[in-house]
Amino acid sequence: MYSDEHVGATGEPLKDVLAIGIGGSFLGPLFVHTALQTDPEVVEFAKGHQLRFLANVDPIDVARNIIGLDPETTCVVVVSKTFTTAETMLKARALWEWISSALSAGGVLPLSLQYGFLIVENGEQPQ
Question: What is the spatial distance between Cα 48 and Cα 66, in angstroms, rounded to a whole number?
Fold first, then answer.
């Protein structure tokens, strides 16, 4: 993601990531992130970029984590097994609103915002 080939809704390269997940949906990505921090090549490649996790039920979590980020160059990754966890969905909606309100002022259509959102789920069909 840290190359210029991944762009957001306005065509600007994505620079930062906000990862939303509760419980195991947070711990898995955190494990991978922590493991990669020991690789000097990865550390060098990631310079100038940020990964922030929104992983708790504190309502101020979103407001605290968007400080200093640009909605135009931020990718939101929503990780959930079922997409029924209220806190995960509330954070996803809040970030959609943050990005959408910032970019719609510049004439970006809401449907094009999908370029700044990634969804990670378990792939199982409901029974």
Answer: 16
- Write down the pTM of the prediction: 0.81
**Type of residue at 59:** P
pLDDT, tens digit, 9 for 90 and up, residues 67-104: 999 998 999 999 988 888 888 899 999 998 898 888 87
Give me the DSSP letters along 34-85. HHHTT-HHHHHHTTT-EEEEE-SS-TTHHHHHTTT--GGGEEEEEE-SSS--
Q: Class of 16-120 per CATH?
A: alpha beta
* Torsions phi, psi for 56 (to 5 deg): -125, 175
CA dihedral 51, 67, 79, 99 (to 10 degrees): -120
Distance CA 101, CA 110 (A): 9
Ranges of each domain in the chain: 16-120
Rounded to the nearest 5 percent, the helix, strand and coil shares of the chain are: 40, 15, 40
> 118 or 112, which is more confident?
118
